[in-house]
Amino acid sequence: MGKVYACIEGRIRNFIDEQPVFFTATAPLAGDGHVNLSPKGRAGTLAVLDPLTLAYLHFGGSGAETIAHLRENGRTTLMWCAFTGPPKVLRVHGRGEPVFRDDPRWGELIPRFGEADGPSARAIIVVRAERIGDSCGFAVPFMDYREERTQHAEHFGRKTDEEFAAYCERKEHVGVSLDGLPALPLPLPPRTG
After folding, report:
1. What is the spatial distance between Cα 13 and Cα 130, in angstroms, rounded to a whole number?
2. Which residue intervals of the chain are DSSP H helices?
3. Distance CA 159, CA 117 (A)
4. What is the DSSP letter of 81?
5. pLDDT score of 103
6. Which of 152, 150, 96 has its CA nearest to residue 120?
């Protein structure tokens, strides 16, 4: 039933654009390390850069497992589920890299996210697809999308860049992962763009 695709175009691109939530998965190389799975869903925070490259904003508010795992080994999987319409699960397996606020590429990438950008954007995760495949999704339930949650953007929108940097430094698993891997560079680099 599943199909493998050469790139993110046409129906696959439309499917990604239509989903209000996606999930990211990463893991350290250590066999006893913590696997991480994160939901992502703020509108406008995911961009398809080209037929094999996606990017999404990585916000503050939680730990930095994804960043730590990508810095260590780059492996990641992004997944979308159809909660409405025809059943489908789409996975993009690939290699990811965090682009930090002081990286020269930040200024080139951040305009791709328009108004979704905000003071709590601490990295842009760029993923180069190695395998793009779908499966049936027959067991995924129908769910109705109601609206975006605004609390995250509102809460961090009240913080200055300096206050956000101080917030990141106080969080236990931001500079290092649960497994002790380097995660977000601290002190938080200032934004270049």
Report:
1. 16
2. 10-18, 65-72, 106-109, 151-157, 161-170
3. 14
4. E
5. 95
6. 152
C-alpha of 51 from chain center = 17
What are the pLDDT digits (tens) for 11-28? 999 999 999 999 999 999
Count of H-run helices and E-run strands, the chain: 5, 8
Q: 74: left (phi > 0), else alpha (psi -120 to 50), else beta?
A: left
Question: Which are the contacts of 16, defined by CB distance < 8 A and separation ≥ 6?
Answer: 8, 22, 46, 48, 54, 80, 90
| pTM exceeds cut of 0.90 | yes
Radius of gyration of the chain (CA): 17
Read off the pLDDT band of 179 (50, 70, 90): very high
CATH superfamily label, 3-170: Electron Transport, Fmn-binding Protein; Chain A (2.30.110.10)
Nearest to 24 by CA among 84, 69, 61: 69
Instruction: Say how far apart CA 52 and CA 127 lie, in whole Å.
Output: 8
Residue of 190, 184, 168, 185 lying closest to 102 (CA atoms): 190
Q: Hey, what are 123's tokens?
A: 């990295």
- Could you identify the residue written with the tokens 């190389």? 29
Query: Which pair of tokens denotes residue 108?
Result: 């080139």
